[in-house]
Amino acid sequence: MIVKIINTLLILFAAYMGTKQGWAMFSGKSEMLELFGKWNIGRQGVMVLGFFTLLSVALILIPKTFVWGNFLMAAGILLIICFHLLDRDFKGVMIEVPFLLLSLIIIYLQHPLAKIS
């Protein structure tokens, strides 16, 4: 029971952070455009990434699409990590690694409302 509560809190935290980040990208906030601009990703590209981040949050909240949502979220985080590695920005990598691990931990713990057979 305590594991389900902890996992629910982790999922809600991941959903909050994903929504916050996804909306910042989708709405074209200047910080996001500046960050992705150094990797030659324009406004439309950032908006597409933001859309997929918001989609992944929605998918994470639904038990049947939970794994797909986490996979999509982890793929987006891994993309950002790769861009940071290309720039040899290890501080940026270290900022993203906990969020990648969070997605993996949440997958391991499974959705708290899923029926386990």
How would you describe this structure to a colleague?
The protein is mainly alpha-helical. The protein has one domain. Helices cover 79% and strands 0% of the residues. It has helices spanning 2-26, 30-37, 43-61, 66-86, 90-109. α1 (2-26) packs across α5 and α3 (43-61) packs antiparallel against α4 (66-86). The longest helix is centred in the N-terminal third of the chain and has 25 residues, at 2-26. The chain is globular. The mean pLDDT is 94.
Quickly describe the structure:
The protein is mainly alpha-helical. It has helices spanning 2-26, 30-37, 43-61, 66-86, 90-109. It has one domain.
Describe this protein with a few key phrases.
5 helices, mainly alpha, single chain, 117 residues
Taken together, the total number of domains comes to 1
First-residue to last-residue Cα separation: 17 Å
> Which blocks of ≥5 consecutive residues have pLDDT under 50?
none
Helix content: over 70%
How can the largest sheet be summarized?
none
| SSE sequence, one letter per element | HHHHH
Class derived from helix and strand content: mainly alpha
Count of alpha and pi helical runs: 5
Shape: globular
* Proportion in β-strands: under 5%
Keywords: Membrane, Transmembrane, Transmembrane helix
Transmembrane segments: 6-26, 46-62, 68-86, 93-111
Protein name: DoxX family protein
Organism: Pedobacter ginsengisoli
Topology of helices and strands:
Blueprint: H1 2-26, H2 30-37, H3 43-61, H4 66-86, H5 90-109
Transmembrane segments: 6-26, 46-62, 68-86, 93-111
Organism: Pedobacter ginsengisoli
Keywords: Membrane, Transmembrane, Transmembrane helix
